[in-house]
Write a sequence for this structure.
């Protein structure tokens, strides 16, 4: 056991922070595939934003789409191991992720580089920023 609950709460202060962040990141991805907006919300800070080719969007928009059922995910897989770096109470997670989403009745398959910025508050890791970049074609 790595000492981290699926909600990102550390059991005590001796756990390896990198392992904690990896576990939180994996549990968060599982919440996205479960299409559970409230579970997803537990992994994000109030100020969470998503950055993509269309600009900066409040995370609340993503959560509202999931809660309404307009946006669902059926798959989210890491390609290789993510790069995790912890700097005090801030952690950066960068990796390649493939996912399958359904939005407004249409299927969307994505292959993206993602970077998530987590901060530790009250013993819990919460995402404050997600940056998505499509993988360049061959």
């Amino acid at each position: 056991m790595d000492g981290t609950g699926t909600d990102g709460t550390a059991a005590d202060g001796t756990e390896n922070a990198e392992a904690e962040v990896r576990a939180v990141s994996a549990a968060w991805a599982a919440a996205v595939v479960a299409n559970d907006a409230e579970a997803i919300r537990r992994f994000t800070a109030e100020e969470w934003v998503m950055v993509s080719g269309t600009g900066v969007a409040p995370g609340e928009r993503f959560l509202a789409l999931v809660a309404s059922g307009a946006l669902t995910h059926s798959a989210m897989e890491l390609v290789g191991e993510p790069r995790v770096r912890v700097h005090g109470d801030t952690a950066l997670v960068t990796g390649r992720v493939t996912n399958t989403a359904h939005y407004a009745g249409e299927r969307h398959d994505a292959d993206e580089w993602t970077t998530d910025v987590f901060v530790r508050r009250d013993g819990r890791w919460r995402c404050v920023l997600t940056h998505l970049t499509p993988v360049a074609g061959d």
